[in-house]
């Protein structure tokens, strides 16, 4: 709510009236029976301010819709003609007056409530330039509202984002309502006195309205609309100053810079509305033509100062980056936006001495408070020696105390820190350098806590230091988890980089908001996992409960979790496919075991025959050649018969126990002989000289060993064959039985898990 200040009170610093309202933050006693307080929108700190309340009617039969009650001091009552016209002819996108009267001797107005979100809050929650299509929609609605006011010969005088309510949102579209007509003026054509007492907010005042006795005109409202649209299109206000004096001097002497508006049509609209000469400024007709797709001409820029502009400063200028600075806030902006040049300035003894001398002017000029002068004296003392990083921030803060909190030109508001964190995640060099600078000198945050929207940054510094110190301990705890694999990858992913520091700073700045955002991102990642990952679930759950940094760790390890989930899912799919195949194959295997029993036994007989045939050949050859004694030959023939019987019996029993299809070719003697028979030939056919030579040597050695066996002990082969085959048969049966049990156990486990899942 804009203050009402009469000219005899000396401007806009103090209304100079005695407060006679019995309450300043509650329903007036005379209306207490009619209305129930819902919320105090704004309490009156001075008589010049209205009490603004959200109320409901206490009558049970009345509408339950909330309303806005504004209760004014009788010396600062709104123009009654404005209220009468708004009540009689409500217009589109305009606040609707329901009732007006007196309560406890002071005027009040009752309006229909249009929600709790104004355009300022919407901008703070949606940083960055607004798309041209949405700017055009805002222009269309403001054009309708302001044109309707001017048709009723009403000048609003205080059109700002705070006084434009966002009543509802329809997708990307906004429904806007222009409110707060407390300083609006009824100005019919025959009104002889257009100059009124000072009203409004400097950042949205037209140049001709910056004097103590304002020129009230419709053109001033269109300038305010232009400032709002430029702020929407740029993502920031085109006047980068904050103190009233600096803002008024800037708008009075320089054209607002809208060159950063990328869309050409939107830039033309802003230039037309922000023309400093009121007679050349765009109005309702030009804006209507622009909305119709036309391009009205934009007059040339003006120079000079309108009447009533604050006089130029008589301070000595300070030269920085080729510019002359007499306004402290101008220098504060330049120092903040050019950190390398600022560092070079403060590192040079001569430049620091010149700066100290220039600052000395403000000990007697400007009417500063004792606290400001005390800080100035301390600051000049620090600048006599090479200062640290926090001294530079203290200097900028003293020069521009009304500038929103920022460092290196980047805002450190909650929205700014969010953008800074996003830039660090994108490897933006400027964002990463700023985070490293803050990590090296965190005391800067304490200094910045004195700037607007920097409240609480001293506490943020403490929380940030705690989070950064806690991070290595949490990493060690995560790495000790027994079910997490790839420790080297985990260590690399959880390194405390500048990007991680930025996320921790965001968490320290907005603990609840950042935690909910991290939890939502982690929940999204967890929802996309193909299979549960226990260690990832533990990080997410513990982070939501007590330690938000674990949520950040979960996000940093998201890729690791996705890979593990995919591996688990693949294993589960393979096991499920195997289980289904096993279930489907049960009947097939039963039929195959019956149908393939005889071929299986035939393969067993073939393998036993191939194994025993060399015995007869060797023993017979030994008998014919006479290389062995008759006693050895007879002993060998005597052993051959039972040995052959044992071989055949062992292989047939093994084949019958294992059965088809598991027996042949993977577990049969015939399969083993077939698989190994081609290895020597393959080795020789490789064509390499050493391979052929080694193969020939092995063959000669086998022939010599055979002759030795023929001459000395021809019974060794049958006995060795029986022992080896019997041992291998036992091993084959045991391995097949173990595999079958594991397969059955897997089937039972999967079946029980599916039953439990269905019950859950």
UniProtKB/TrEMBL annotation:
The chain crosses the membrane at residues 601-622, 689-709, 715-733. Residues 1-25, 294-314 are annotated as: Disordered. Residues 1-291 form the Protein kinase domain. Residues 16-25 have a biased composition (Basic and acidic residues). Pfam families: Pkinase. Keywords: Membrane, Transmembrane, Transmembrane helix. InterPro entries: Kinase-like_dom_sf, Prot_kinase_dom, Tyr_kinase_AS. PANTHER family: OVARIAN-SPECIFIC SERINE/THREONINE-PROTEIN KINASE LOK-RELATED, PROTEIN KINASE DOMAIN-CONTAINING PROTEIN. This is Protein kinase domain-containing protein. It comes from Streptomyces marokkonensis.
């Amino acid at each position: 709510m804009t203050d009402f200040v009469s000219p005899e009170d000396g401007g806009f610093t103090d209304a100079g009236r005695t407060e006679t309202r019995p309450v300043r933050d509650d329903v007036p006693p005379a209306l207490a029976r009619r209305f129930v307080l819902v919320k105090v929108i704004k309490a009156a700190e001075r008589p010049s301010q209205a009490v603004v309340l959200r109320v409901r009617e206490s009558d049970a039969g009345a509408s339950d819709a909330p309303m806005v009650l504004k209760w004014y001091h009788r010396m600062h009552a709104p123009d009654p003609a404005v209220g009468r016209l708004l009540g009689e002819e409500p217009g589109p996108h305009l606040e609707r007056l329901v009732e007006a009267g007196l309560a406890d001797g002071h005027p009040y107005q009752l309006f229909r409530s249009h929600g709790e979100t104004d355009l300022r809050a919407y901008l703070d929650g949606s940083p960055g330039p607004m798309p041209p299509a949405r700017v055009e929609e805002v222009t269309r609605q403001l054009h309708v509202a302001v044109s309707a006011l001017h048709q009723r010969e009403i000048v609003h005088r205080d059109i700002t984002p705070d006084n434009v309510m966002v009543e509802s949102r329809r997708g990307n579209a906004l429904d806007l309502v222009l409110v707060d007509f407390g300083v609006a003026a009824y100005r019919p054509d025959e009104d002889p006195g257009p100059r009124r007492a000072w009203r409004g907010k400097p950042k949205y005042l037209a140049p001709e309205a910056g004097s103590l006795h304002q020129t009230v005109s419709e053109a001033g409202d269109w300038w305010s609309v232009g400032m709002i649209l430029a702020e929407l299109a740029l993502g920031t206000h085109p006047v980068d100053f904050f103190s009233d004096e600096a803002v008024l001097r800037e708008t009075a002497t320089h054209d607002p810079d809208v060159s950063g508006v990328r869309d050409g049509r939107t830039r033309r609209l802003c230039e037309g509305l922000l023309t400093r000469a009121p007679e050349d400024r765009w109005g309702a007709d030009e804006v209507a033509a622009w909305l119709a797709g036309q391009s009205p001409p934009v007059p040339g820029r003006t120079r000079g100062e309108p009447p009533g502009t604050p006089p130029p400063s008589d301070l000595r200028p300070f030269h920085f980056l080729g510019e002359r600075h007499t306004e402290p806030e101008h220098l504060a902006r330049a120092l903040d936006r050019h950190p390398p040049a600022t560092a070079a300035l403060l590192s040079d003894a001569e430049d620091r001495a010149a700066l100290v001398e220039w600052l000395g002017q403000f000990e007697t000029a400007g009417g500063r408070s004792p606290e400001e002068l005390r800080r100035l004296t301390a600051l000049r003392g620090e600048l006599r020696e090479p200062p640290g990083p926090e001294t530079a921030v203290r200097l900028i803060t003293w020069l521009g105390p009304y500038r929103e909190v920022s460092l290196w030109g980047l805002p450190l508001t909650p929205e700014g820190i969010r953008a800074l964190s996003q830039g660090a995640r994108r490897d933006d060099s400027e964002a990463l350098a700023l985070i490293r600078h803050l990590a090296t000198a965190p005391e800067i945050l304490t200094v910045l806590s004195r700037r607007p929207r920097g409240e609480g940054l001293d506490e943020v510094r403490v929380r940030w230091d705690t989070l950064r110190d806690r991070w290595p301990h949490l990493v060690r705890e995560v790495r000790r988890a027994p079910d997490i694999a790839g420790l080297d990858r985990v260590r690399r992913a959880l390194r405390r980089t500048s990007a991680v520091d930025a996320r921790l700073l965001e968490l320290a700045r907005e603990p609840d908001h950042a935690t909910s955002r991290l939890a939502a991102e982690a929940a999204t990642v967890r929802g996309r996992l193909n299979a549960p990952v226990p260690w990832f679930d533990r990080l997410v759950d513990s982070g939501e409960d007590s330690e938000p940094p674990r949520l950040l760790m979960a996000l940093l390890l998201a890729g690791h979790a996705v890979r593990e989930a995919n591996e688990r899912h693949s294993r589960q799919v393979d096991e499920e496919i195997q289980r289904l195949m096993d279930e489907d194959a049960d009947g097939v295997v039963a039929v195959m075991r019956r149908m393939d029993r005889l071929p299986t036994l035939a393969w067993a007989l073939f393998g036993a025959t191939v194994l025993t045939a060399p015995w007869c050949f060797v023993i017979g050859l030994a008998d014919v050649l006479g290389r062995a004694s008759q006693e050895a030959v007879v002993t060998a023939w005597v052993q051959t018969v039972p040995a052959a019987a044992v071989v055949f019996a062992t292989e047939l029993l093994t084949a019958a126990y294992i059965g088809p299809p598991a027996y042949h070719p993977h577990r049969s003697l015939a399969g083993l002989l077939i698989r190994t028979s081609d290895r020597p030939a393959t080795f020789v056919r490789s064509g390499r000289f050493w391979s052929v030579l080694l193969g020939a040597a092995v063959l000669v050695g086998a022939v010599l060993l055979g002759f030795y066996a023929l001459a000395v002990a021809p019974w060794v082969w049958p006995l060795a064959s029986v022992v080896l085959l019997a041992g291998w048969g036992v091993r084959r049966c045991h391995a097949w039985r173990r595999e079958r049990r594991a397969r059955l156990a897997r089937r039972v486990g999967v079946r029980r898990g599916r039953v439990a899942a269905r019950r859950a």
